[in-house]
Amino acid sequence: MQSKAEIDQVLRQKCEAKEIPGVVAMAATGSEVIYQGAFGKRDLGKDDAMTADSVFWIASMTKAITCAAGMQLVEQGKLSLDEPIGKLLPDLANPQVLEGFDASGEPRLRPATKPITLRHLMTHTAGFAYSLFNGDCAQYLEKTGTPDIFTCQNAALKTPIMSDPGTRWEYGINIDFVGKAVEAASGKPLAAYLRDNLFAPLGMSDIGFKITDAMRKRLVGVHARGEDGALSPIPFEVEQAPEFHMGGGGLYGTAADYIKFTQMILNKGRGNGNQLLKPETVALMSQNHIGDLSIGKIATKAPMYTNDVDLYPDIVKKWGLSFLINTAKTAEGRSAGSLAWAGLANTYFWIDPARNVAGVILMQLLPFFDGKALEAFAGFERGVYAGLDAGSGQRAA
Question: What is the pLDDT of residue 286?
Fold first, then answer.
């Protein structure tokens, strides 16, 4: 597969030029891995070379996994997409909308016009925000002393919504509530539920909220890009003794494990010999669930952590349960109707059912949506499609 050499060259060059610290990339069809590569360093402050089994904080790539768990419980009738979720999660029973702040800086709240549902949560239309992208949310946290979601404290979930449920798409802490719903409906902590019902059946043995000793030996350091463009390691770790497991962003794992999850979606809910979701459920998850709403530019309010996020500005983007859906073919070759998302430290995945291919590329640097990281991602994705188009069918791993 000619494209393997091309992908290797793109990723190696990015690392050698210190444009990114290190990277692991993996692509697969429903039945086999067709590319894998590891380049650069795990941590620019140390000597360890990146390896294919390196462990990354996958951040918001956790979301699709948490929603898959939620959909298993929907199949079983233990959760409903459209019942008011407040029946199960009392904290969401009487949502308050933040209308702004009065002259003295006090938050002005009013009751929401309708109840929040699981579908709202899975599609980021419940009204919840992230302080990284919403200034009013950030101001509310500061004014009230409410902890940020990254503290993994239950108090962090006690925030108002920024708009009435179902009225707009806004990226936020919604999937953390999906995690809470999974716990309430299953009677298990989220970590245990995911382990028993997704990770173990799929043979995903190197993923979890808790970094085990074995995982820590292969853990990739997080880096920050300075004003001058140079990268330096920073201390960063998701709370390892959390009050709740962050279903929206708490997982650590490997490319090999995440690719197994993407293959399960490609294979209509089947993976490692186990049917984890019904084919019709996977089809449902892959459809637009936000109607006429669409996803535009997500402007940053915290440039240290994230740049403005503007995915495929020329393509209308929709949202499934819980994936970004591109409605037209991308420049890299991704088919219309593909599923994708990403994680804050520049980790990305896509699932293209039309071409029966999925890819995962993992880096660890901030801010998110980094130009050099995106170039590495685009080079990788283009190479994967070039290999498919060449129809070589040879194994490139």
Answer: 98
Instruction: Give the CA dihedral 63, 66, 71, 73, nearest 10 degrees.
Output: -160
How far the first Cα of the chain sits from its last, in Å, is 10
pLDDT above 90: residue 348: yes
H-assigned helices in 158-315 = 174-186, 190-194, 200-202, 213-216, 255-266, 279-285
Q: Which residues are catalytic?
A: 60, 63, 171
359, 353 Cβ separation under 8 angstroms = no
The answer to whether residue 68 sits within a structural domain is no
- The answer on 376 and 350 residing in a single domain is yes
Structure tokens, 196: 């028993």
Whether residue 91 is predicted with pLDDT greater than 70 in this model: the reply is yes
Domain that holds residue 93: 75-183
Tell me the residue type at 302.
A
Does 70 reside within a domain? no
Q: Where are the alpha helices (DSSP H) in 187-247?
A: 190-194, 200-202, 213-216
